[in-house]
Amino acid sequence: MIDPVSLGRRLHAVRTGRGLALSALAREAGVSVSMLSAIERGEKTPTVVVLSRIADGLGWSLSRLLADLEADRVIVRRVAEQDHVAEPGGWHRTVLTPVVPGVNFEWIRTTLPAGCDAGTFPAYAPGSHEFVAVESGTLWLGVGSAEHVLAAGDSVYFPADVTHSYANRGDEPCAYHVAALVMRPRSART
């Protein structure tokens, strides 16, 4: 498992060694200054996607940023360590997966209250994939211009290189899991 304090120290050393202010790296990486600061202090463990953005902002690969930080090949993420995010509109998501160097995979559990629309998500890079499994309630899943109504126990796969949306138009809460492999194009930095 990657120690958040060691990761924070590494990130701080790389950033300051390149003469970058927190705000400059945050802008390059597309993350907030407060998030970046919390990561550097070892107070937050970022998702793989956020770490990849930070590595891109530094002009590094994710594996280079995380080199020698992995202490164990088996990574346990206790419930208290999982990221719980309350989203506008009353929906909630929990990032279940730990950060694994070089792996752009996330497993997220989401709960939508009755009548909640979580919104539309942009297309990811080609080669991205999503698997969705409904735990309870009914989920209205939009994939491109199509809509699929999924009940408890149903699951679906789709290439995530199209816009997609999640909504609960029912009268009961809906809980579902998303397993996502998100590819991100790397841009050349000087």
What does this structure look like?
The protein has 190 residues and is of the alpha+beta class. Helices cover 24% and strands 32% of the residues. The protein is built from 5 helices and 10 strands. It has helices at residues 4-17, 22-29, 33-40, 48-58, 62-66; strands spanning 83-86, 92-95, 105-112, 116-121, 129-136, 138-143, 146-151, 155-159, 164-168, 174-181. The strands form 2 sheets. It has a 6-stranded antiparallel β-sheet with strand order 1-2-3-10-5-8, with no helix packed on it. The protein has a 4-stranded antiparallel β-sheet with strand order 4-9-6-7, with no helix packed on it. Strand 6 (138-143) and strand 7 form a beta hairpin. Helix 2 (22-29) crosses helix 4 (48-58). The longest helix has 14 residues, at 4-17. The radius of gyration is 18 Å and the shape is elongated. The model is unreliable at 186-190 (pLDDT under 50).
List keywords for this structure.
alpha+beta; about 190 residues; disordered C terminus; four-stranded antiparallel sheet; 10 strands; single chain; six-stranded antiparallel sheet
Overall geometric form: elongated
What's the total helix number? Answer: 5
The major sheet is characterized as: 6 strands, antiparallel
Write down the overall mean pLDDT. 87
H/E topology pattern: HHHHHEEEEEEEEEE
Counting helices, strands and paired strands, the structural category is alpha+beta
Number of strands: 10
Spatial order of strands in the largest sheet: 1-2-3-10-5-8
Helix content: 10-25%
| Rg, nearest Å | 18 Å
* End-to-end Cα distance: 31 Å
Binned strand content: 25-35%
| Unreliable runs | 186-190
